[in-house]
Amino acid sequence: MSEFSLDRRDLLKTGAITLVGSTALSKLAGAENTSVGEEVWSFETGDRIESSPTVVDGTVYVGSNDSNVYALDRADGSELWSFDTGHWGLSSPAVVDNTAYVGSDAFNVYALDVADGTEEWSFETVLVWSSPTVVDGTVYVGSNDGNVYALNAADGTEEWSFETGGWVVSSPTVADGTVYVGSLDSNVYALDGAEGSELWSFETGGGNVHSSPTVVEGTVYVGSMDGNVYAIDAADGDEVWSFETGEGVRISSPTVADGTVYVGSLDNNVYALDRADGSELWSFETGDYVESSPTVADGTVYVGSRDNYLYAIDAADGGEVWSFETGDYVESSPTVVDGTVYVGSNDGNVYAIDAGVEGSSEGSRVNLGTFGHHHTFAEQGPTDSGDHSEPDLEASFTFEPETPTIDETVTFDASASEPTVEIGEYRWDFTGDGGTDETGEIIEKEFESPEEQTVTLTIVDNGERESSSKETLVVTDSDSSDDEPGDTGDDDEEVDTAGDGEDDTIDSDGDGPGFGIGGALAGVGGAAYLLRRQLEDDVDSDS
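Predicted structure:
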């Protein structure tokens, strides 16, 4: 297991947080011996796990109703440390800057040192089922006392609080300096992130809002116990669209990836909705309530159900890819990191399962750092906060060789495009018709005729923004010479280099007898001419 040859605790003490992959954390070593959808490892706690795992820098963080927060080695599931909060742990840890933030039924929000699990600070309130979100040095979290709190991430002091009319089980989402959160008073709130003042509130149709909002390009998506999934204008709180499921949308929270909203419902279904208008693209029926929040990786949707199964669903058509049976409800929300899916179950176990893909969870919740996030957020922070702007999208690519010949393999590499964590698609157009001839970050292609070829790369991010880049390459005929039009081939320079009176002419254009070494190597047929010259010399020496 070469990826774990470094001492993780030493790395954490130095403040090192790196993207999984940059230290060769690719597919788990244990996954090499498993099939898709099979268990890589499991770790047993003392009670139900409704908390959702967070995976950062090779460590899995998760709470259990046995009152502990656990840090597990991502490679084999072994326990690195545990912290006893004193009561159930439904809240999912947020990990930022070497600190894990988590709520507890012990009436506290805790900040824990990720190196050894020691407490850095705690903030007292009442039951905390909400999962913290950490942005720009502030921890945002809901409490069952009806308040949303903003706490200083360094010492836990209260910066502000906002009182709603019901428990705040929903986990806050922060985008463009605004905090979005639901309440059991049936409202979704938008609060000023700096001072906590209300910007607007949106009243659902009388249903409690347990679901946690997600935000993409100025629209808030959230579920309600009134049975609807809502799209709300982030600027003014006006409804954009709503979609009615067959029952309430309780704990399941939407995630948005590639223009699609994915969410579960108490009608036993997982829904894929068009982000623009809320129309149903497909639904997938499980055997019981879907309280788990879907996550998306490499075109596959992963979600748990109270029928005890974790499902992998094709994001394109809603077909089942595989399912994994646990011993009890799966209300925990899965997270995929480098081809392994991590999830908790009410049977008390944390599972690592071969996801059947190579990538990691993507989409809005991951980018915003809400519950179940992974290393991408920990390394880069939220993609749409701080300077309140989305990262620039810029397509760029290189190709080798720069002047290919017919049937020579050309490698096109788009890895220089920015920002890589946001790019969902790489489209290559070689015909100039605006279509897509190839897809992928790095591709190989051969050309059948000499021509000047214009290549267009278009990249598409998870918010469906596009950026394009064009480059021109010239494909040459492998049999063509370097002679310019009208070249008579008489450019050879006569010179006696050996001092023997013989003509050791340097053939500057590689066109025949009189070759010097440089011309022989460069000219077409030069190698054959050198061989013939050597044979003639051998004959002369033997006569």
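Summary: The radius of gyration is 30 Å.
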